[in-house]
Design a protein that fits this description.
- It is a single chain.
- By secondary structure, the chain is an alpha+beta fold.
- The chain folds into 4 domains: 172 residues, Immunoglobulin-like (Sandwich), CATH 2.60.40; 93 residues, Sandwich (Immunoglobulin-like), CATH 2.60.40; 274 residues, no CATH class; 106 residues, Glutaredoxin, CATH 3.40.30.
- Strands 11, 12, 13, 14, 15, 16, 17, 18 and 19 form a 9-stranded mixed sheet that branches.
- β15 and β16 form a beta hairpin.
- The longest helix has 31 residues.
- The chain starts with 9 loop residues before the first helix and ends with a helix.
């Protein structure tokens, strides 16, 4: 490094010093690496998501790093001081390992120097490409010399260690424990922003404009530049919101100006960030400052919460129109109109029903938050990504359908009464639990943004929004229970109610049929036959129960016990996930499966893309596909306009899709995005029409 003859200013000295420190540390890592202690302060271990990779597959590798207390490792750009890790590989012929991918770092200032570090256990992920011609049973020994810098607040130690793992070419099966561990690591990687950011450098400042949904919360944002030498790392950053942009203002480095692009990561929450590339362009003036606590300036956080809560309430009300919920709601509502019902009894049943719904939604929220805290990319409808839950719901809905059809009554244990003519708080409560359980597969209108925002709020706010969703679902029944005028509008009870009950069994049978179809898509024909066989046995047992009830026998429900035991055994001992048996993924003819790499390539080619995310258990998704996406006029218009169609199938849960949805501020399907040729991204409504889609082509 050469210095100008003139004495450098104080600012220049301060900027030069970190570069010198980093150069010395890097040199020390090279020279002293061979003599360094073997992982003295950071334990390193090489892991693979599967030990039996399939020929031609891509396998995720992880360099797992566990620092000792008060020690830390470094991000890809260490900041003012430090050095990133690297591996010198020794690989079998034809095997390739991609670059390291780093999780979102933390900040650490030591003696005035800003460091981008990891003070907790972390993992650096890489992609291993297995040759297509590799024969099953072929051993693949991966080995390399890893080097990293371990630092404490007072000393830095260059460390190295041999890392290795033995793989055997096989079927590519991933053990559930391994998948969960790697999903946890992947969840901490920055997500691709997917939209162009811009920057401008003038007046000693570097300013960024980063696209970010207007209503999406952000916690403690900070920009970590991957491009070195652009900003003064230790100087504070000013971040504000301007419409659907985050405006980041940073002090420029005194050593040079940015080049054609600035790469980096914008942190938006704990272990959450977006990877972006900013290019020269216009940056708007600063907007509403984001305060140190991480939320918007006074009133902003509450406005976001209020909007999300309102969306959850409206979305919950609309869930009552689901074909599996409407029959239950209708029968319970009509039961309040029967003769002899008092206002007090109506209010008790309404409150109990609402309690069942709200507590069920809160329980779902807590389970979802727990899964996400463990690193799983779970979202709304996560329970239906497990075939065991779908199987359990298939049996439950089959029993409900047969009950509504009049085949049996289980008054002894309360199920039949809870669904039809039961009085009191207990039957109404369990009816609310059932309604919440079977009403939550889809993200309907008003719900998408609300639930997406909930999962980025603090846990208390997230649970409150899910409780609001449950309140919205229970609101119609609460209104009928507390407003006598509404009950008087309901028809008077009579023999017609029994006929209506039988008629409402039809949509429940259709729901059971839909669940059977989803089960077949998830686990294949063989397991579908098992599920249908169990449903048939359940139907025969319930028919026997009904016959015993008609003869007035005691313990009429006893024939159900062996079937219930068999169903419980199937649920408990069945695998959590099974590879889908369908020959092709869900999606319109000619659609490509979702891939972030392929999407980026199409954007680079400036090709318009219609990207949508769906699941077989999502009713809204299937309606949109049949009514709009797969219509011949739409396919023809897209083909003529050169629009690529890409589909993400979330039926069985895909961590990559889950993380991408989260980056868009969503937590469930459906989601419809249109990428214009000029780089603009348009989020489409959740209810599509052929006219809307052909308009995109025009």
């Amino acid at each position: 490094m050469s210095l100008r003859k003139n004495a450098p200013s104080a600012v220049a000295v301060r900027d030069i010093l970190p570069l010198t420190v980093r150069a010395l540390l890097a040199l020390l890592l090279v020279l002293l690496g061979p003599a360094a202690a073997q992982a003295a302060h950071i334990a390193a271990r090489l892991e693979a998501e599967t030990l039996r990779p399939a020929p031609g597959s891509r396998v995720t590798l992880a360099l797992s790093m566990v620092p000792e207390r008060d020690w830390h490792g470094y991000w890809q750009n260490p900041g003012d001081a430090g050095a990133p890790a690297d591996i010198a590989w020794t690989l079998p012929a034809g095997v390739k390992v991609g670059p390291m991918r780093y999780p979102v770092p933390q900040r650490l200032i030591v003696q005035g120097l800003m460091n981008y570090v990891y003070e907790r256990p972390y993992a650096l992920l890489m992609i291993l490409d297995v040759p297509r011609g590799a024969k099953p049973g072929t051993p693949l020994k991966l080995a390399g010399k890893a080097r990293w810098l371990a630092c404490s607040p007072i000393i830095c130690v260059p460390e190295q260690g041999m890392v290795a793992i033995d793989l055997i070419v096989g079927d590519g099966a991933v053990p559930p424990a391994s998948r969960a561990r790697f999903d946890g690591w992947r969840a901490r990687l920055p997500l691709p922003l997917g939209q162009p950011a811009s920057f401008e450098a003038k007046g000693g400042k570097v300013r960024l404009a980063i696209p970010f949904p207007k209503g999406r919360p952000v916690t403690n944002p900070y920009f970590y530049p991957a491009t070195d030498g652009v900003i003064d790392y230790a100087a504070p950053q000013a971040i504000s919101r301007k419409g659907d942009r985050l405006i980041v203002e940073m002090k420029a480095s005194a050593l040079g100006r940015p080049g054609a692009a600035i790469d980096g990561v914008i942190a938006i929450g704990p272990d959450r960030g977006l990877a972006l590339t900013a290019r020269p362009g216009k940056v708007p003036a600063a907007g509403v400052p984001i305060v140190a606590a991480g939320q918007d300036a006074p009133g902003g956080g509450w406005r976001t919460f209020a909007l999300a809560l309102g969306g959850a309430l409206l979305g919950g009300v609309l869930l009552n129109l689901m074909p599996c919920v409407f029959p239950i709601l209708s029968l319970k509502a009509l039961s309040l109109a029967r003769s002899g019902e008092t206002d007090r009894q109506a209010r008790i049943e309404a409150v109990a029903y609402a309690g069942g719904v709200i507590l069920s939604c809160v329980a779902l929220a807590l389970a979802l938050l727990a899964l996400r805290a463990g690193g799983a990319a779970a979202g709304w409808g996560f329970q239906l990504q497990d075939p065991r839950m779908v199987f359990a719901l298939l049996l439950l809905v089959t029993a409900i359908s047969l009950n509504l059809a009049g085949l049996f009554e289980l008054r002894a244990i309360g199920l039949g009464e809870a669904l039809t003519r039961g009085q009191g708080a207990t039957p109404a409560f369990w009816t609310g639990v059932l309604a919440a359980l079977i009403a939550t597969p889809c993200s309907g209108p008003f719900m998408a943004g609300a639930v997406g925002a909930a999962l980025l709020l603090p846990p208390v706010g997230a649970v409150a929004i899910f409780a609001g969703l449950g309140f919205g679902l229970a609101l119609p029944f609460l209104a009928i229970g507390f407003i006598p005028a509404l009950r008087r509008l309901l028809p008077k009870p009579g023999a017609w109610m029994e006929r209506l009950r039988h008629i409402l069994a039809v949509p429940m049978f259709l729901t059971a049929l839909g669940l059977a179809w989803v089960l077949g898509r998830q686990v294949g024909v063989d397991q579908l036959v098992v599920g249908l066989g169990a449903a048939l046995l359940l139907g025969l047992a319930l028919w026997w129960v009904g016959a015993r009830q008609a003869r007035g026998k005691r313990h009429s429900w006893a024939p159900l016990l062996p079937v219930a035991a068999l169903a419980a055994a199937l649920i408990l001992f069945a695998p959590a996930t099974t590879a889908p048996a369908t020959a092709s993924p869900a999606g319109a003819p000619g659609a490509e499966p979702f891939s972030e790499a392929r999407l980026a390539a199409l954007q680079t080619e400036r090709k318009p893309v219609f990207l949508y995310f769906t699941a077989d258990w999502c009713l809204t998704c299937k309606v949109n596909e049949q009514a709009a996406i797969e219509r011949p006029v739409v396919r023809q218009a897209f083909a003529e306009a050169g629009i690529a169609v890409m589909v993400g199938d979330w039926t069985n849960g895909d961590p990559a899709i889950g993380r991408f949805l989260e980056a868009q501020g969503r937590s469930g399907v459906p989601l419809y995005l249109f990428y214009h040729r000029d780089g603009r991204i348009e989020t489409l409504p959740q209810l599509l029409t052929p006219r809307l889609l052909t308009g995109l082509a025009a």
